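User: Please predict structures.

Assistant: First:
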Amino acid sequence: MMKLGCNTVLFGMADLAIALQHIAWAGYAGAELAALPGMADHIDPERDAERARDIVIHADELGIDLVAIEAGGNPERQQRCFDLARGLGIPTVCVGSGGKPDDPSSWREAIQRLRGMAKAAEIAGVTLAVKPHVGAAIYSTETALRAIQEIDSPEIGINWDPSHLYRNNEDLVASAQQLAPYIRHVHIRDCLSRERHVGPPETQIPGRGSIDLAAILQALHAGGYDGYLDLEVIGAKNYELARAMGIAAESRGYLQRCLQAL
């Protein structure tokens, strides 16, 4: 059965220890660590290699799993997150493809970069999960399938985020069905409309927007996905901690009810 996690990017106003504490208090079973410069740099491959054991002990004391790293920044920094993930016992590193949509040159560069990263992931023994992202070279179900085929690595998979595919005007149930064999991780949030730009944090709370999350969770379940659903709400870095906690708690309550209905 799928479990609920929370990306620490929601708590970008706090340090990692505080973020993990609030994720645990909100009732999540797992945490995804944000390595996102400028948004939530909770984990850094240079700074945190020596304190990996302390991070693992803290998470264990809180009773939460460390389930993924979301790695931003340049490709070299992202790649260094593989060894950090191994040291933390984290199975998955999530990245975007970068690049531009429907641009052959940008596509070739993105695939070459991801192919190299997949090789590094194989060496580190972790899975590289690429998100189809609005405005990037890999942005749709079709481009995600094409990328998986061209990269051709046992450690490449998809970080499936329905909010991006929704804004690409896709049928989300059909997307989940088509990508089911390759989905290694899931980011979850809502959005009010299919407009390109995601709205403020409150509009991303599951159940407040236009996405039929119950239907897509049913599709993921039917496709055999039994990993984590990680809440990824962005834009709250300047919020008070209590306000971010309210978002985490409301989101968890709604998603837990959806899972219970399965």
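Second:
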Amino acid sequence: MDPRSEVLLRQAELFQGAVLLAGLPADDLLGRLPDAHGWCWHAGDQAALDARFPERSHFGVNVPERAFDTAVVFLPKAKDLTDYILNAVAARLAGREVYLVGEKRSGIEGASKQLNPFGKPRKLDSARHCQLWQVTVAEAPEAKPLESLAQTYELPLAEGPLKVISLPGVFSHGRLDRGSALLLEHLDKLPSGHLLDFGCGAGVLGAAVKRRYPHNTVTLLDVDAFAAASSRMTLAANGLEAEVLTGDGIDAAPMGLSAILSNPPFHVGVHTDYHATENLLRKAAKHLKNGGELRLVANSFLKYQPLIEEHLGICAIKAEGQGFRIYRAKRG
């Protein structure tokens, strides 16, 4: 069981009623708190929770409509996402309790200050390298619409400026990261057909490709509901149409693709995790049609070339710069 869940269960008497668990891990916590309900924005966690606890977890970027008497927020990685989630639950809980739980290495001690706008926070427990904080909401804040927290920036592209809209918690929020910038410079000669932006984030690559190759079908896929919402906003802001999916990795992608583009993630929360990318490299061939292409940007220190060649075919380094490499391989 996740250590944060273990800390909650040390105080289980506090969480017996209609509790909302925001950002909960995919463990047995819902089984141990039978009246609790989850709010999840990670598609993999949601699938695992749905399989074990059907209809007991809500997936999406907005706080569930259902009534709850108290809320526990599992500390997200991004400070601005924490602010959004805390505001969303506190807006519904005047005079009641909001709890914040997180690992010490995730910065829970400092994050506890984000409870200050709602009342006087107090530390309830410290165990399993985690802390549990509580605040009684003195006065319910006005709920901030998610759109009001979006950040917008513009990219000068050959086809004209591209407006990118990102939401709290989305990779490289409010700015273009160096890996995607390099890949944007090397989107030439993509095959026609169905293109996938894997791990789409705010939708930069997917939108740029749809703008450049308007007759192609484009799908954007991410595990995170906030990323999917950002991608939809980016597409709409540029008058572009593409499919946006949430799903846990390449298994959720369509078949028969002409190309897969990716600046893949290697962090989950504060933890380094190469699983999604390695799974992509192992299974890309299954999702590509014959002659279909994988074009991927990654930190130069990540040894992806042998894995790509093992599962897909000859892999060329198309470009290098600023600590990144673009790998290109075709399904034979």
